Every structure is written in structure tokens, then in C-alpha cells.
Amino acid sequence: MRTAERALLAALLPAAFLSMTGCSGSPHNPTENYILVATNTKIPYWQSASAGLIHAVNEMKVKGSMDGPDTYDAKAEHDAFQRALTQKPAGILISAADASVMTPDINSAVQQGIPVITIDSDAPGSKRLFFVGTDNYNAGTLGGGLVAKLINGKGNVVVFTIPSQANLRDRLHGYEDAFAEHPDIKISQVVDMGGDPTVVFDTTRKLLDSKAKVDAFVCLEAISCPEVGEVVNRANMKGKVTIVAMDTDQRTTDWIQKGVVSATIAQKPFTMAYYGTKLLDDLHHHPPSPLAGNWAQSATAPVPTFVDTGTFIVDKGNVDAFLQQNKSATAQATSGQ
């Protein structure tokens, strides 16, 4: 994110937060309903986000739920969003698997007076109010710097991604810029895994079987690197190839504990959904006028354009502490405490 954008965000967030906390003491209607729509909803990443949503609605004594397919399926996510609209919710959180598919849905919701915030994966061309999630370019530069260090500034890198997702394109851009400082590092292949882990497994196995020179595997989304770890482990190549993952799927953290996956770039899906729901609540009770205004181009906008929830590295040195902390936070959130 550019310096000027960060400065604007720093100026806007305190006002937004004060507004949010100011309304939190006012009575909520228990029928208020906040819905999170995503894909791959069964993976730990989205279960963590669901816990954040539930924690927020429990605090406000309102209703909330997550909907969406348990695979990567943009059409099914569209269907889930349409189901959410029929419930006339107080607000919708959406992670846009394909922004081109979801933009008309988002615009329709906002035109109906339902505030929409994107989390995790943005739809910047839509009328969503703003985006809450990772600065994906920075996540890429963080990962790129780590890979460069782990392979001593030289080698061939294979990347697994889904090119249709804007957040993954930003991550790849971050990796590319980080590698640009190391002329002996080359991205030898970018693989479109299309949300299918079998593509990752088969591609990794073929590369290793062919004796192709691969010094590092990089995964830009959650479900790839557990498959890479499986193949590398079966090939008895633990410690011979660097693997840097994304997110904290249980299989990923298991491979980190076993020394097969070197590290992962952890996002904060719990925070995205928790804070996003609180901000949706504020937008429901104090909507900007007009709700569909072009606030990104307004110097006096009542909302920010982007709220960065941050990223950090999880490796063998801190994975156990991370897992314990995550377990405690999730249990507390889902218990309604």
C-alpha cells in the first residue's frame, strides 16, 4: 500500500472505530442477521473466519451464519449470495472467488440498501463499501523475502495459484518484486491449480519424478502446500526443497512441525470476519448516504477503502505456540464467552 493511502487509512480508522464502539452500547434487534459468503467453507481458514463472525454476533446478541460451497466454485458462491439476499440481512461479508461473477450480486445488494463488505478476496470494481483483509502485495513481498533467504538468493521457484483471484495476483506480484532484488532467483513455472488439490499433487509429483531443478515451491492459497508436502515427504526429499505455504491449514502446520514445509504466511481470517461484522453493524445502524456512493473518490468519505488485518510468518520455531493460541481463541469465540 502506498504511503499516502496508509496515511488516509490511519486518519479514517479512528473515526470509524469510535462510531462502531459508540453504537455497540445501543440496543440491537435480535433479528438482525449478518451473513458471510465464501467458497471452500469447510477448510480451517474459513472455519476460523466463521468463529470470528460468531464471536461478533454473540457479543452483539444478534444472528449470523456462513454460507457457500465447500469447494472452489464461483457459480455456487453466486447462488449462496442470492440465498443470502432473500433473507434481507442487516449486512453481508463476501470473499469474492471471482470478482467478475460477484460484482453484479454485490451491486444489487447495495442498491437494495444492504451494506456489503468484502473480506479476504476483494471485488474492487463493485459497490462494496470497503475491503477488510490482507494487504496481499505485502504478503507476497514477505513470502518472497523469506524464500530468498531460505534458498540463499538463487534457484528455481514453482508457484501454485488461481489467476482469476485478484488477491492471489497481488501476492504473485509481491513475490516477483521481492525476487527482482535477487537476479539468480527465477520463477520457472506458475501453475493454475484451479482450486483443485489433485492438480497440485500431480504436478509436484511429475516435477520431482522428472528430476526438474526445483529449489522451492510457493503456494499462494491454502490448499496447495499440504499436497506439495505430501509429495515431497513420499519422495524422501524433506530438507532438500524449500516449501513456503499460505495460511494455517492443519495439514500445513503438521508438515511444518515435521520439518517438511519450511514456513507459511499466516493471515487473520478470524479478525477479518470479526472486525468486518462489527463494521457491518455500524453501517447497518449508521449507513452513509447514499449507501452506493463513490466513497473511494471522496476526500470526506465516512468509510475507509481498505482495512489491513496483517500477516505474519509461522515456522517450526513458533508453530506450537501459534496452534495453542488459535485453539484457545476459537474455543472462546464459539462458546459465546
Structural notes for this entry:
- The chain folds into two domains: 3-134 and 268-310 and 318-334, Response regulator (Rossmann fold), CATH 3.40.50.2300; 136-266, Response regulator (Rossmann fold), CATH 3.40.50.
- Helices cover 47% and strands 17% of the residues.
- It has eleven helices and twelve strands.
- It has helices at 3-24, 44-60, 74-86, 99-111, 136-150, 166-179, 197-209, 225-234, 250-257, 269-285, 319-334; strands spanning 33-37, 63-67, 91-94, 116-119, 131-133, 154-161, 184-192, 216-219, 242-246, 263-266, 306-308, 312-315.
- Strand 6, helix 6 (166-179) and strand 7 (184-192) form a beta-alpha-beta unit.
- Helix 7 packs parallel to helix 8.
- The longest helix is centred in the first third of the chain and has 22 residues, at 3-24.
- It starts with a helix and ends with a helix.
- Residues 1-12 and 14-25 have low confidence and may be disordered.
Summarize the structure.
By secondary structure, the protein is α/β, with parallel strands linked by helices. Helix content is 47%, strand content 17%.
Main attributes of the structure:
11 helices; 2 domains; 337 residues; alpha/beta; single chain; Rossmann fold
CATH architecture of the largest domain: 3-Layer(aba) Sandwich
Gyration radius, in Å: 20 Å
Main beta sheet strand tally, sense and closure: 6 strands, parallel
The averaged pLDDT comes out at 90
Helix- and strand-based class? alpha/beta
CATH homologous group name of the largest domain: Response regulator
Q: Reading side by side through the largest sheet, how are the strands ordered?
A: 2-1-3-4-5-11
Can you write the helix and strand succession as a string? HEHEHEHEEHEHEHEHEHEHEEH
The top-level CATH class of the largest domain is Alpha Beta
Globally, the shape reads: elongated
How many structural domains are formed by the residues? 2
